[in-house]
Amino acid sequence: MSRKKEVNVPKKLIILILLIIIIALAFICKSIVTKNKSLNNNTVAGLDISKYKDYEVPIAYYYYGIQNKNFDVFLKAYPEFMGISSQFSADDLNNFYETYKDECGENIKIDYEIGDAVQYTEEQLADLENYLKANYQQEIQVSQAYTVNITEKYTGDKQTIESKKTQIVFQFNGQWYSL
């Protein structure tokens, strides 16, 4: 004859264990949500902006938008007050490729390399603010700006065209933009 021995566990102990489990699950869920939010903040339409210096981000938006014919990402390179969305359209990104097809051939790939960047002086920042006020009727305080050297390569089936350009990027309200 076997006897079952009953173990009498106090209700307070059971409640305490359940509370510990609930709290642990809450912390786990919070860390997952926080991790996903940080991933979302570093990725825009497939572009991982965490690998760029802050001032390089608008340049990355520009080229990524063109490469992927993603007008929304392209527009992130510019502040709204510049009115780029009314000057260009998604069709313009498609036409951009048509321009280079004649010279480079089909299957155009765009590569770029960010070179040296020269930070603006206080006097240059004031000049930039005056430029923005005169040309866009915007009185903004630019906190930083750089002139950035970029090497572009357009490669198609026929040939590669390489060009060098200089891009001005500036920061205001904590965001970086191209000019």
Offer a quick outline of the entry.
46% of the residues lie in helices and 25% in strands. The protein is an alpha+beta fold. The strands form 2 sheets. A 4-stranded antiparallel beta sheet has the order 3-4-5-6. It has a two-stranded antiparallel sheet with strand order 1-2.
Descriptive overview:
The protein is elongated and about 90 Å long. It is α+β, with helices and mostly antiparallel strands and 179 residues long. The chain contains six helices and six strands; from the N terminus they run H-E-E-H-H-H-H-E-H-E-E-E. The longest helix has 32 residues, at 11-42. Strand 4 and strand 5 (160-172) form a beta hairpin. Helix content is 46%, strand content 25%. The strands form two sheets. The protein has a four-stranded antiparallel beta sheet. The model is unreliable at 34-40 (pLDDT under 50).
- Give me the oligomer status: single chain
Largest sheet: 4 strands, antiparallel
The SS-based structural class is alpha+beta
Shape: elongated
Helix content: 40-55%
- How much strand? 15-25%
* Spans of at least 5 consecutive residues with low confidence: 34-40
* CA radius of gyration: 27 Å
